[in-house]
Every structure is written in structure tokens, then in C-alpha cells.
Give the backbone structure.
Amino acid sequence: MKESFRHIFSLGCKELAGLFRDPLLVVLIIYSFSLNIYIGAKSAPEAISDAAIAIVDEDGSPLSKRISDAFIPPLFLKPDMISRADIDRLMDEGRYTFIVVFPPSFQEKVMANDNPEVQVNVDATRMSQAFTGNGYIQQIINREVKSFIGEKSQGKPIYSAGAIIRNRFNPNLTKSWGRAVNGLINNITMIALILTGAALIRERERGTMEHLLVTPVKPVEIMISKVWSMSLLVLVVTGFSLIMIVHKLLGIPIAGSFWLFMLGVLINLFTVTSLGIFLACFARDMPQLGILLILVLMPMQILSGGTTSQANMPAFIQFVMRFAPTTYFVEFSKAILFRGANFSLVWKIFLQMLILGGVYFFIALRRFRKSVAS
Amino acid sequence: MSQTPMDDRRDAPVVEFRELSLSYGKTVGIDRLTLALPPRQLIGLIGPDGVGKSTLLSLITGAHVMQKGDLRVLGGDMRDVEHRNWACPRIAYMPQGLGKNLYFTLTVEENLQFFARLFGQDAEERRQRIDRLTKSTGLYRFLNRPAGKLSGGMKQKLGLCCSLIHDPDLLVLDEPTTGVDPLARRQFWDLIDNIKEEQPSLSVIVATAYMDEAQRFDWLIAMDAGHILDTGTPEELLRKTSSPNLDEAFIKLLPEEKRSGHSELVVPPLETDGEISIEAEGLTKRFGDFTAVDHVSFKIQRGEIFGFLGSNGCGKTTTMRMLTGLLPVTEGEAKLFGKPIDSESPETRKNLGYMTQLFSLYNELTVRQNIELYAKLYDMEPEEIPARVDAMLERFDLTGVANRLPSQLPLGIKQRMSLAAAVIHSPQILILDEPTSGVDPVARDSFWELIIEISRRDKVTVFITTHFMNEATRCDRISLMHAGRSLACDTPEALTAARSAETLEDAFIAYLEEADSGAADAAEAAAGGMVSSSNDGTKKKKSFFQEHVFDFGRFYTYFWRELLELRRDRIRTTLALFGAMILMVVIGYGITMDVENIDTAVLDWDQSELSQDYLLSIYGSPRYFRVHEPVTGHSELEMRMKSGELQMVVEIPPSFGRDVQRGKNPDVGYWIDGGEPATAETTVGYAQGVHSLWQQRYAERQQHSGTKGVSVQNRYLYNPDVLSLPAMVPAVIPLLLMMIPAVLAALSVVREKELGSIINLYVTPVRRSEFLLGKQLPYVLFSFASAVLLVLMAVFLFDVPIKGSVLLLMGSLFIYCILSTGMGMLCSSVTKSQIAVIFLALIATMMPAVQLCGLTDPVPNDGSLSSIIGNIYPTTHMLLISRGVFNKGLRFTHLTIPVLILAVEIVAICGLGILTQRKQER
């Protein structure tokens, strides 16, 4: 037992010492935990901004003008006035995300309580901007019409109070918060996977693995040594990145306990590094590992719930993603960092992650022992 | 310095250097060498490891970039690019290491074809030359065998054939027979002699550590520590030093301080108590149908030095791996100290010390760190370790290099260090697999001194394999192995006597030839005739373009080679192809902007009829709101939102109903989880919708006029059902076609760097552009094939029709594939290790393509770093084209700009890759 610990400790130290000898690798790690996260976080404007909008005003009434004037920066660019005939062409060219069309005698019909229709053309290929922007446009039109009617009819609307919206945990819905934390999660996953997976393949290709196996070292000790050393390294840079880049540079408040988050990261790293070894045991050489990494990393980055909510994905994808460590990582990161959740609220996620990691670890170990014997 | 007896004084020296120096960082490789080498000679470069032999050769062949001094090869200055381009095709170079310039997945035929094509030979000429060369070297029978499956000797012969394929004027061989068995070695030198005979104008320069080989050279250069000790014919050197053989002559040439301590090795007789330490009985190992080791039996006494001799690939290493417990035994039994080998038992392992054939310690740890690591892994007591490590460093003469990295050290020192690591824990048995391959004579002798000491003084049993006959004679007993079987096992003297041979080497060869059709090889070599070079001089005239800009033949050669390799790796191509299709399904269905099933609960302080009516609009939209148990208070609200159970809570204030009826306009509160801003934004929209809908309904119920307002009709263009899928699928294609091709291509160049075949770029006339673009093209074609598959999937599986020009889409995708593979090649050009290139390729593609290029959010134009990258990155433009053609039905006239941008970026990315790739080693 005591020997095992010493083996694991010595081999882990060897991993770390080896890593620091490769300057390019160190530079890449530093880059991915600093600039890469910063650039990713700043990748899109906050909420919707500068949406290109055009208006076809076939009414030309004070009401239609009033609504047109309500589309103002920063949400929208100043609207261009165009004619109906140009709608399709301009939409095709991608000049505008939205084109609002006021029909003839629009104001007249409003006043006559005739419920006229305003048409909003939306370029649905613009994805998030299309969906959220459309919501804003509806609000603006309704608001303007309501207050216009109120002014004109002098009548007192019976219930006109607004809904008071309070956004918890991120009052201004600042998108960079989510992006930064996602970026951190993605980088942690990527680096932990590459470092363990590729390090294992490298030992195999260079013959150092064979040499280790004639010493009293057991395969499980080799695996644990890789897990702890790479986890420690990534844990340290994660802590640095969270404080210096996410919190200080990007100004994102951390609602919950830093140390609770780090505990979660640690458990997650156990799962991810085990997955890395698992993949390396299936790849014959580095080119194959490269492809495997892409196949695993890409869905994890896009579908773990960091970019879009997992609740809205089809059931089979939600099922598949239960096997991805990042799904749990995203869950507890949001809970701790944004919602300020404490241990009692996240222990279940931690436990699930631990079980998943255990499963990966043991499959990898079996596979590793087998590959050693052949 | 002695003067050369030149046969023809009119001839200029083939190689001439003055004050030539080269250093690697602070380490001096060669130091101000000045010499002229006579032409048409077989010139031997002899000297210990790490004295600069390989450095000198890599400069002569132009593989390494020059630093200081002058060097003229074949009558021209090697600094001059024009001359290098002229000279390269006339110099053939075989680097150190078994088959280092070969491609192991390619067959013998394909390797030869590759080199022949590189030198622009036409099909007929290639066929003739390949047949002639392989027939005379005995490789003809193995034309279809992958080079990786050849034995060491055959690999070296193939390497030689590849070097000779283009009739060079100068042949440079760097330790060509290291690690090659005596029979194959003898055949190799006969081959060289034949070639020289056939082609007297050929000059050959050979670096070697075998002094018995040096005997047959015309002229020798003895080197030490970056300097030239002496030059002359073998006879001259022998005379000058009055030595009986070159081994001794060389040692006498060494400066005084290096010679000290060196004396003739004497092996004290074995004193044994008869205890058996290693015992094998009918030991057999089969891999499938192939029997690697066939019923081998032996008994080795404690303290004995037991030698294993045999041709390459005869099962020596496999036997050793079974003894160490690395390989399970198929049949038979092996015992260490009377106990069966138990690979799991740490006790067995602690008794073993092992040295693998190839260096297998860590290049990233210093010498001391490596030895310390093994001390710890062998469970030595921590307090004993420092003293023991120091003692070992001292004993193996490693103290001076204790803090250096092994990669900077010559092979001989590395082998000493491996031995130190193998004996650090004072094992009872030492298993050494070719420990002296590639080690110079002096180092080899001192290595053997250690082995003898360990065996005789410490009573350690030594089990060793070697190709050196003088080493074999030092063993107490040797076993001759061939094709998995043990031919004979006795003392060296007895074996020599049994064949009535003069030397052990002759006896050994006699045994082998008797046992094997290996004789057929030699016979064939004799019958096959000579390597006659048809100096018909009908070399095709190259056009100016080929000569100075781009040669399509060489480009095609690299293309053909890479394609072969890609096609061989079925697993990788299948993974890449099917992986892309699976990812398309998963991501296509997975990314969705639709927000539904919002976890909602109500906090109704009022509980009036009107509040219930208000909340009906929540309960009535199950598609949007998944309603949970009502919340009863603020602390519960806080808790349940924190835990992530609830995304939205609707709070109705106390006396809401009464206040509304009195016209007091009470506010309704919506608490929304902002942790996911994009979802939250949509949720906010829903909340406002619910609220104003109820306002309207309430007003209608009160029959109040004037509040009907307007209805907004949405027309979602290009995606009328507002589904994510039709918008996502055209976007996933560019995403996948960025990352997968980049990673595929990224490893291609770095792998050549790690495995050594990059040397072919350095020493053949191929240009960087021909090399890189040729290697890139197979990946472009492969990626484009997967692009076609993905588009077909989009149309037929996902029912996303192509509304615009198919030609435009496919054309742009082709350009895009060039770009993404080009990104991979660029990553490959600037990195050295496979691990770093995977890392770089992933960082360079994944984050930008997913986050910066408008996949879910449009690319901003605010001048920030993110937006600059986003606007430059190819994926942005490909997304515009893909969505434009798929969803909007656009044609070329609408999309001219993005297509043009992509086309310009090809030049930029591929050009940058070519510029950053080096044509010479630095």
C-alpha cells in the first residue's frame, strides 16, 4: 500500500516535470486559460444589439412613424425606409434581419378598433438574434400602440400595469457571463482529455510504457498517477483563470463558494482524465486519437447545455449527454457560480459525476490491462 | 595530417570544408574542421558516439542548415541555394536508424516507387531500376511486403536501394549496419562493393562504429570531440599506431586522458554454486498463425553471462519479453529462481533489471531524475536513494551529465544511463536487449567492463543479446537463435570448434546458412547480376517552370504516397467519415434555439378568483411552461431557484384581484433565472406575452373598447416553421468540415518529423510547396468526399432542400476543404510533437468555429479582437454561403464576396504553411 502511494506520487511528479519541459505546450495551456476564454466571452454583442431593421410604411400615419422612431440603438440600427417590392431582394442579400410592414390605413384601423395586422419579416437563419429580436419588436409595437391609444382616446385603460421582470442571478442577462464560464468548462475538458490521452499514447509509442511495466508498478498505479497529476495541473490553472480572467478581467461576479466550485472541478477532472485514458486505450496511434478527440469534444462543447439549454433538446440527445462529463460540469457551474448554490444543492450532481468517472476509470483500466498483455 | 594517395590528381575533391563549425545551442557539434575528401573512394568516418560524425554528414548532404565555415560539395558552395538544388539530386543520404527514411506502412515496391518518382523517372525506367536493384539485393521476393514488417537488415538494404535509385554521384551512409545481424551485415557490404565496382565514379562516405568494417574502406577519418584525429588508409593508420587492428589503433589515436583506464578486457572465469536462476522449458509464443518463439529451452546459472545471438526478428526480444512477464507465455514454462514467472508479483519484478532495445527512459527528465524515478519505482527505501543514485552515477561515469536531458546525449551515454537505471535496485537478474547497438568501441568496452563486474562481483545473472561477435565471445555461454528456434547452445569456443570455423562469426554464419534458405538470398544476389547503372544520360530536360517554380511530378509523388497511407489506415478514415455523419445527426438535432418546457411555479399571495384567472394563462400553455408545485414564500422561492429546479416564478401580489378591480394597477412579478442569458431573454418575451394577453382578455371581458391594439403577424423567412433544424443543418456542415479535416491533416507533417522521414524533404530536390501541397491534397479530396456525404444527408435525411445553386455550394465547399486542411498543415509546420499539434489544431479550430463565426449569434462588427477573428475566419464566410444556398436560394451573384474571400484565404493559409515549413534542419 505504502509502495503504491510512492509509485503513484513519483510517476505523477514525472508527468508534471515532463510537461514543463515542452515550452510550446505550456504556452498553449496558458493561452487557452486566458486569451482563449477572453476572446470567447467577448464573441457576441450583449443581448441583441445593432440589429439591422427596415420599415415598409404604406400608411405614413403619425402612429406608424411613432413606432418606426421607437426602434433605436443600441438594440436596433436606425431603420431604413424601403418599398414593399424590395422586401424579398433585401432579405435575400441578408441586409436586414427584420423588415416591419405597416399596411395602408393602419392607424385608422387601430383607432376603429379593427385590429390591423403588422407584418414582421424575420430572417430565421440569424438564429438567436431572430428569436429574441422578434420579441423586442412585438413589445415595442404593443407599447407604442397602447400609449398612442391612451393619449388619443383619453380613456383610462382598466388594467395597464406592466409585468415586473426580475432576472435573478444575472440581472442584465449579460451574455459574456455564460460564455466565459462555458469557455472555461470547454478548455478544462479539452486540456484534461488531450494531456492524459496523448501522454498515454506517447508513452506507448516511445516504449517507456513497456519499461514501466517490468518494474513493480501496476497498471492501475500508472493510470492514477496520470489522473492526479493532470488534474492538479488543470485545477491550478482553472483557479487562476476563474479569479484573474473570469472574475477580475471580465468582471463576472461569483455568487457561490469558490472552494465548492473547485471541489466540483476536481471531481470533474477525475471523470474527464479517466475518459482521456479510456479514449487512448482505444486509439492505436496519435492520428486516431486526434479524430476520437474531435468526435468526443465537439458534441460535449455544443450540447452540454452551455450554449443552448439541454431541456429543449430531443430526449435521445439528453440521454446520450448524460454520459458526457460536461453536462454535469455545466449544471454545477451555473448552480454554484451564478445561483450561489451551496453543497446541499449540488451534492447529487457531484455524486453522479463521481459514479460516471468511476465507470470510465474501470473500463479504461480493464482495457489498459488487456492492451498491456498483448 | 597525412596526404592522400589520389589515383587521379586532376580530380577535384568530392567534399571540401574549411573551418566548418556547428553547435546546438551551447553544445558544440563539430568545431572548425578543415579537410578535403578524395573522390571515387569508400571513405570511412570512425569515432565514438557524439563526436560529430552525424553532424558532419547532415551538413554535407544539406539536411542541416550551415552555421559557420565553408563547405563545398561536388564542386559548389553548399550555402548557395542554386547549387544545393543542383547537388541534392546527385547526393544520396541514408540517415542513422533502421529505415529512418522509409515509410513503414508502404510496401517495398511503393517505397522504391516513391523515391524514383521524386527524381522524375518515367514508369518504364522506374520498373527497370526497381527490378534490377531489388534482384541484386535479394529484396525482389518481398516487393509486396510493408517496409515496417521487414527485418532490420532488410530495412537497411531497402534504404540503400532507395538511395541508389537515382544514380547519385555521392552516397552518404550514416551507421548503415547498426543493429543489423552479422550475416545481413556481410551481405550489405558485398552489395556496396558490387555497386562500387559497377560504378567507379561513385564516392561513398560511411560513418560506422564497427571497426572490422572500417578495415575494408579506402580511406578513413578518425574523429573525436568535434575534431579530426587523423586521416589515411587503414594500413597507414595501423602503421602509424603500430597496432594489430583498427579497434586498438583508434584507441591509440585518442588523446591521453581519454585513453586512461582503458585496457584489454579480461573476463574472469565463472565461479558458480550451481544454482539455476533462469530456466526455460519448451518456451513458445504464437501470435495468431505466426510462431515467434518455438520451444526454446535453456538453464542459466547464477552469475553467468548468457548471450543470445541471432538474425533480426528471430525471436530474441520476444523471449526476453516473456521472461520479464510482459508477454504471456503460449506454451511451455519459464522459471526465475525456481519459481514460475508471475507478472503480478512485485517480488519477481524487484529481482529483475531490464534494458529495452530502443531507448525507453524519459527524454523530458534529466539523467538523475530518470535514475531516481526508477529507484522509487523499484521500492527502494527513500533514505537510501540519494546515496545509491550518486554511487550509480559515479560508477557509470554519469556524474558530469547528471543534470542534462537524454535527448542531448549521444547514444553510448544514454545506454550507460539505461544500464544504471536497470541496476539501481541491485537486481539478481539483468535482461539486456541489444544494449550496445550503435555504441562506439570504447564505450562498448567500458560498458562490458561494467557488465563483467556486475556479474562476477555482484553475482548477478546477465542475459544479453548482441550483434557484435567480440562481445559474444565474452559470454560464458551463448545460444544461437534462428526463426524462433534455438540452433545451438554452448560456450563460444565450443560452438566455433563444432563448425571448425576460425572465428565465432564464421561459425555463426555457417549455422545460419545451414538452417535457412537465407542462403537463397545470397545466391540470388550473385545471380541477379550487378547494380548496373545504365548511364545512358537520357535524363529528361525539365522546363523552366519545373526547374524554378513547381514540379507537378514531385507534387504528385507526395500526393500518391500520402493517399496510399491514408487509404491503409481504414480505422482512421472510417472514424472520420462516420464520425462526421454521426456528429451531424447529433448536433443537427441537438442545437436548438427553441425554448420550451420552462420550469415554472407560481407564488400566489392573493388566491382570488382573478389571480387564478391570471395564472390560467400559465397553466394553459404546457408546451412553454412546465408547471411545478406552487411556491409558498420568498425563502422557498430563493431555494428552489438556486437549486435550478425553477427557471421562472410568477408572483401575484396580495389583494391583486381587489386592486385590479379598483383600477389600482398592481404589478405582477416575474422571477426569471438569468443564469442562461439566451434562454432567459426568450423567457422574458414569453412573460411579457402572457401578461399583455391577459390584459387584453381582461379588457375584452369588461367590454372596454379601445384596447384591442394590433396583432403582429410574424413571417419567418427561410425557415417558416421556426424550427432550429433547417437553420442548423446548413451550419453544422461547415463546422464539421473545419475541425475534422484540420486535425486529420495536422498530424501528417509532424508525424514525419517524429518518425524521421522528414529527412526526405531536407535532402531530395522536392520543394516545400510540392511537399506540403502534395501531402495536403489527399486530405482535401477525402474531406470533400465527406462534404458530399453530409450534403446528401442534409437533403435526404433531414429534408433540408438546397434552394440555390448546387454548383456554388459544392464549389465553395471544395475551396473550404482546402482551407481547413490548410489550417491543419499550418499547425503542422510550426510544431514538432504530435501532442502539441493536436492541441494547437483543436484550439485553432474548435473555439473560433463554434463561438466566433456566427453559428448562433451573428458576428459583430465592433472592432473587438473577437469580431476581427470572426470576420477573418473562413467558417464565417462558409456559413453565409451554406445558409444562403440552402435556405435562401441564393446564387453566385449574391455571394460573390464571401466566395472571393475564401479564395484569397487559400493563398494566405497555404502560403503561410509553406513559408513556416523549413527546407533544412536547424
